[in-house]
Amino acid sequence: MGRRGVFVTLEGVDGCGKTTQVARLAQALAATGREVVRLREPGGTPISEKVRALLLDPSNEEMADECELLLYEASRAQLVRQLIEPALTRGAVVLCDRYADSTYAYQAAGRGLDDALVRGANALGSCGCVPDRTLVLDLDVSRAYERATAGSVDRLEAEGLAFQERVQAGYRHLAATEPGRVHLVDATGTVDEVFDRLWNDLSDLWADAPAAPFCSVGGR
């Protein structure tokens, strides 16, 4: 059996620029000849995309916090079993735009759900699949919120600035309590400057990643 692949997740408040950077990382890794599977949460599989539509639909304003939590975990479990685990088994690099740390930041820190409840739900939804590295793009919340709400907004983006501030505090708490896995990355500056910081942080992981063709699944 070959070596397990590498699992990297990018996190941050809405408007921090992580989706742009996931695409840049996938492109850069493709140039090295590695197999890269690019994903997003919630979503990435037909079932998970249907759950995503429910979660982000602004008309679902009556959704209970517990319902929201369980929908995220259902979407994640399907993504892990259908795409992430098989990709890692064959040695691919998996890049995911959001993962379980988003659920902690948004549902525990943002919504105020019990930490232990959310962590337990995350353990179930992630099926034991933990990222090798999680990079949190750290940007002034007001600036990120202005970006995120410049056009049409989804249900979570519409929660307001104070909600996003609590989310960012949740991410910073994760970085402080799990420094080996969760790294804060300064997201100020140009797209290229932020990319360089991310790439340098991940360079130790790429050194051991196997080489193969590029593919993109479910990215945005």
Automatic annotation (TrEMBL):
Single GO cellular component term: cytosol
GO molecular function: ATP binding; dTMP kinase activity
Keyword Kinase appears in the UniProt entry: yes
Coiled-coil ranges per UniProt: none
Binding site for ATP: G12, V13, D14, G15, C16, G17, K18, T19
Keywords tagged on the record: ATP-binding, Kinase, Nucleotide biosynthesis, Nucleotide-binding, Transferase
Xref: InterPro entries: P-loop_NTPase, Thymidylate_kin-like_dom, Thymidylate_kin_CS, Thymidylate_kinase
Family: Belongs to the thymidylate kinase family.
Annotated protein name in UniProt: Thymidylate kinase
Organism encoding this protein: Thermophilibacter immobilis
Lineage of producing organism: Bacteria, Bacillati, Actinomycetota, Coriobacteriia, Coriobacteriales
Gene: tmk
